[in-house]
Amino acid sequence: MSKFYCQSCGMPISKDPHHGGLEKDGTRSSRYCSFCYNDGEFVQKDITLEQMQGVVLEQLLKSKMPRLLVRIYVRNIKKLSRWKTK
Ligand SMILES: [Zn+2]
To answer: What angle do CA 54, 32, 73 make, to 5 degrees?
Structure first.
């Protein structure tokens, strides 16, 4: 995935109404969206990959994305840099 996707949840940064989370110094993060990241740290610090996949799955099913695409999208979350070390 490119750097233009949030490296925590996979959402395109362009779809983020705030265009990225905030760093501690007030600049916009180019790596994480505003839902995942704020004030230089993750909003949900202790969320596991499985929990994140569950949250994203629910959101995407609500958005009426085709189920096959949802499955691919959710499977790819583990490739994002936030989760790669595990
Ligand atoms: Zn995110």
So the answer is: 40
